[in-house]
User: Fold these one by one.
Assistant:
Number 1:
Amino acid sequence: MDINSHNEFWEFVDDIDWKSRPNDAEIKITKSKYTNEQLKRFEEHFDFFSNIVYNTIESDEGTDIYFGGCDDFCCTDLPAEVVGRGESFFFEHARSVSKLCKFGNEGDVEESFSYIFLDSDSDSEDDTITINR
């Protein structure tokens, strides 16, 4: 991945403004500004960046990091939240066990930012983005 595509991804994250807890309609409006190809790339970037956080959590030093939530998907909530908070928040927290511990225990970790990549209007098992542009 080149740096320009990273910049575009972080602009998209800022546009979503996850910290404000946008509703489905607001997310859909924001996503409609982007092409399907861009959204697919953004999902790949999200996976890349959230894996960095997840690897920090799974490190020997990260054993005390709370993931948030209590369901089967909670292990993805904290990495997704860190990415969803934007570029500077990500780079401040992604590789810091102490900051991830503090944020995981005290932060406002809710639904996973990754949910924005699912198409809530689709009844198919394939939850890819179907916004046409």
Number 2:
Amino acid sequence: MEAISNRIKRVLDEMHGKSDIRESYVIRKDGLIICSHVPSTSSHRISAMSASLLELGKRTLKEVAGDDLKLIMVNGNDINIIISGSGDIALVCAIGADENVGMIFIRIKMAIKKVQAILDEAYGKTIPGI
């Protein structure tokens, strides 16, 4: 049987091949990296900060409107970060500030579903350690 990390890496490779995503990370909600594509030297810090942003966004939405979080987007002058969660995982993507985010949102949504299916098949509905 193929390693789980290789299967997830293929999903990320496919997502990158069809869009202009610079780098991406599949992370656990506690901030640990499951898999990455074109990781930077600060990937562990990016992962931890992304998990923190997800938790803050989720708490804020619950407090303000009782709503559930879909994604967080951080806009910069040159780069945008999109963080989207599903269950116990999240997908963090860095894109150029001028990219078409509509198409990238679709790619991210599809990739999260595929990664979640891989993890559900391997571990059931919860990831070990969470």
